[in-house]
Amino acid sequence: MDLLGVLQILDSTVRMATPLLLACLAGLFSERAGIFDIGLEGKMLMAAFFAAAFAAFTGNVWIGLLAAIAASLALSLLHGLASITFRGNQLISGVAINFLAAGVTVVIGQAWFDLGGRTPALEGAGRFQEVTLPFADALAPVPVFGPIYAELISGHSPLVYVALLFVPLSWWVLFRTRFGLRLRAVGENPAAVDTAGVSVVALRFYAVGICGVLCGIAGAYLATGLAAGFVKDMSAGRGFIALAALIFAKWRPWYALYACLLFGFLEAIGNRFQSIELLGIAVPSQFMQALPYILTVVILAGFVGKAIPPRAGGEPYVKER
Amino acid sequence: MPKWVDILLIPLINLALALFVSGLVVAYIGENPFEAVAILVKGAVGSPYGWGYTLYYTTNFIFTGLAVAVAFHARLFNIGGEGQAGLGGLGVALVLLALPWPHWSIALLAAMVGAMAFGAFWAAIPAYLLAKRGSHIVITTIMFNFIASALLVYLLVNVIKVPGSMSPETARFGVSLPNANDVLPWVGFPRSTPLNVTFVVALLACVAVWVLIWRTRLGYEIRAYGHSEPAALYAGISPVRIIMVTMLISGGLSGLMAINAVMGEAERLVLDPVQGAGFVGIAVALMGRSHPVGVFLAALLFGMLYQGGAELEFERPAITREMIVVIQALVILFTGALDNMVRSPVERFFVNLNKRAA
């Protein structure tokens, strides 16, 4: 394969990794604060629908983005209400949110657009356009570096760069600010945080809120960046792959980036080749699709490094027993 | 708090809330919710045809609901019903295609063994990983759903489809289960309804699970482990054994669902034989409070919703089939996640009542 072919795959890797990365960082904030979130998938789907719907109504993709964030945030607050306020089971709440999004997007979509659950195809200002970084065209003829800059680094939707910026930002917030320290503490030992006079409930709601905003951006990217409109079930398990990436990354931001790039790469390869030959053995595309899940199980099993989740994860905090 | 409040009143309030919110959604999309309910109920139970489909779906949901319920008793959350049932379907297909079965009853027994073995196997890996390596069972069972789906697609496309055929499905099985039309000709079930003798198997499974959980030593140990792991350990109950056995039973029950869908209805293995029934099982187990009787009633309710929902979509195209998914989500939300929202005030009310009475 020539340089251009490789670059196309890597370019596709970045596109595929972006929604995973945003959802993965969303899960990072929530789970670091001790709130398991298997509803990433549902929030992304709901956000994708609202992004596409409002972009279609207004012709303005930024309004679509805001609607996506609002919709995802609403589901996050529902998750918070169930799992923080009413101390319900976080996993069950997440399952409910996934189904709710899968159903509501089609039911409302049919009522609004009458297109069998789709939204109208978006064009022009209704989609995120590709950003051409400065000098991309001028540098393109430079050997090796030119194509890499023009093809791989430049020419993505703005949300791709936003997602990449969120990696150092998340790291800084979680590991270099007081808020981040408290947020991590609330996921490890909420009683200690409570004793220090900091509200566990408020911190967890902040974390769930950040999770909602990031899932909203992820969903908006799916419907207005990667695709041109919403189709039924368009998140297609990405929320679960993001969850897998989060475990793969052992709940750390930079590793989340690497894990998402790896899973995005697998998806890019799977999209491009029906089956690939590896050392003389034909690897079926279904294996490539299942690989992120298999890798996660292997990591969870602790055969290759142990993934230890935040200690208070999944348990509602009860102030006094 | 009286017992009937816990097992009857609170689930009914939760269900009413879920249906109320569903009604709001229906009203929002410009349809009359009461009319919708009328069409739904009529479509589900208004004719032998409706009953045939309703009870067919009920059969699926009894199996997947029992599977989740058994795991709940050991405080294990098995989300993997979808994958376990899919693998169960593979087991059914392999058994039925392996030999020319002389009679449906022998074939049914053999297929049940195949379904349970494959379903249990698919649950055994996450169970082992939890018992021995401490991997979170919810995450591993979710991952195994995706792996199962990829595996089934691969096998159907590349290995077990009819040679030369384009469609990804196996050959038709040589045997078919007695249909409701054959068994109960006087009721007037049309030939086309997929209801078959598996329904009886599902009812027997309810009884078997009740006996297992409340009338056997193993069931006691499962419940003891579910209530308190340290206490169970102190009583000499091995957590590894309980996790493994419970998940094997749970996976086996999920696998049995394939008897109904693969052997009873499709009579061949097709892509996605489970059709979301594994996930409906979660809602069914939550609503049924993990009791076989509750599971049966909740499965019947969801069977009605699925069949009635199809009729509803036919009569009122604005209300798409996904409305059922919304109702399912709201039932899970209110009976599972938001349970305390209703429970706490109701508990307080009865505590006050008792105080005043005393």
From TrEMBL, chain A:
The organism's place on the tree of life at top rank: Bacteria
Membrane topology: Multi-pass membrane protein
UniProt keyword annotation of Lyase present: no
GO MF term list: transmembrane transporter activity
UniProt main location, coarse: membrane
Cellular localization per UniProt: Cell membrane
Record field: transmembrane: 12-30, 65-84, 91-113, 158-175, 205-231, 251-269
Entry's Gene Ontology cellular component terms: plasma membrane
Keywords: Cell membrane, Membrane, Transmembrane, Transmembrane helix
Protein name: L-arabinose transporter permease protein
Organism: Thalassobacter stenotrophicus
High-level lineage: Bacteria, Pseudomonadati, Pseudomonadota, Alphaproteobacteria, Rhodobacterales
UniProtKB/TrEMBL annotation, chain B:
One Gene Ontology cellular component: plasma membrane
GO molecular function per UniProt: transmembrane transporter activity
Pfam families given in the database record: BPD_transp_2
Transmembrane segments: 7-30, 50-72, 84-101, 107-130, 137-157, 195-213, 233-259, 279-306
Main location class: membrane
Compartment(s) of residence: Cell membrane
Keywords recorded for this protein, A-Z: Cell membrane, Membrane, Transmembrane, Transmembrane helix
Topology of this chain in the membrane: Multi-pass membrane protein
Keyword Cell membrane: yes
InterPro entries: ABC_transp_permease
PANTHER family in the cross-refs: ABC TRANSPORTER, PERMEASE PROTEIN, GUANOSINE ABC TRANSPORTER PERMEASE PROTEIN NUPP
Protein name (database record): Ribose transport system permease protein RbsC
Species this protein is from: Thalassobacter stenotrophicus
